[in-house]
UniProtKB/TrEMBL annotation:
Gene3D superfamilies to which the protein is assigned, alphabetical: Glutaredoxin (3.40.30.10)
SUPFAM superfamilies listed in its UniProt record: Thioredoxin-like
Record protein name field: Thioredoxin domain-containing protein
Length: 135
């Protein structure tokens, strides 16, 4: 488990999805950044559960960071019927930019501040952790 570092996520930071479309982060909502790698077996097993997270925590925006190709991202969106954006990001960039060292990994952003940074092994951990943070 990673320790929380005081990262201030600026809502002016520009994120784009894997097709280059801008992603708007809603200030009034909590946002969870989920980092996965398609080379990580835990991450691949975790993928079907991400849609469940949006059902169990409807007041949380989800942004997935993944190193898949355009075709792989399109396929995942269609197969899992995801309604949230995917940002293309290699693990080395995630480590440099967000200090992500293990996968799968989550960051919870509330009011522009990172209130949680943690690697996770089980999907239920995410829901429990987020509910513990008042989400």
């Amino acid at each position: 488990m990673n320790q929380l570092s005081n990262i201030k996520y600026s809502l002016t930071d520009q994120l784009e999805d894997y097709k280059g479309n801008p992603i708007m982060i809603q200030q009034h909502m909590s946002t969870v950044f989920i980092f996965v790698s398609l080379y990580c077996s835990y991450c691949v097993e975790f993928l079907p559960e991400i849609a469940t997270l949006t059902e169990k925590c409807p007041d949380v925006d989800v942004i997935l960071f993944c190193n898949g190709t355009i075709e792989e991202h399109d396929e995942m969106i269609n197969y899992f019927d995801w309604k949230f954006p995917i940002v293309y990001m290699e693990p080395t960039e995630a480590e440099r930019r967000y200090d992500v060292g293990e996968y799968p990994f989550i960051m919870l952003i509330k009011d522009g501040t990172c209130v949680l940074k943690e690697s996770v092994e089980e999907f239920d951990e995410i829901v429990d952790i987020m509910k513990g943070k008042g989400v």
